[in-house]
Amino acid sequence: MVGQAVIIIRACGERARFVDYLLSRLPGSLVVWDRWSDAMETFLRALEAAGDSAALHMEDDVLLTRDFVAKAAAVLERHGDRPVQFFSLPRKRDALGSRLEPGRTFCMGQCFYLPPGMSRKLLEYAPTWPRRMEHPTGLDLMVADFLRGRRQQYWLHMPSLVQHRRLPSLIDPRRSKSRQSASFVDPDDEE
What we know:
By secondary structure, the chain is α/β, with parallel strands linked by helices. It contains 6 helices and 9 strands; from the N terminus they run βαβαββαβαββααββ.
């Protein structure tokens, strides 16, 4: 747990060793295993697992910063009443530092926090999401549309507290392996 938030790791069997890495640093985390190579279905089950609890949603292919739990808890102590994004990709905007962002800009699913009740509300929203057929794996797009519809902002934290590993995507191997955060520092390496 991070503060009062349950940690939920969305995981694929092919990456079990990365799940072991995360569990060794985040004991007590819930793991929601992908059943059918379906990122959205796995995300919906992660939302269901969170129920009404505050939840930190995480993918299995991340590397943590050192003292991740303490750093994340400090952020949530100040901003835990709203969604928080702990991974940033747009390098040009990283120079702006931590800030509130409009919900429509929410991007990436590596590691983000949803306050109490929001996972359930997002799960209820999912069947009505109009872009599901267009973006069947776009869980971050669904979150962005959900937040936009509620005119809700989220906190974008800098530096990123997780790094996306340089691996082929299991969703689409044609995706670039170069989807890392430029702001990430102080890795908690496996060795």
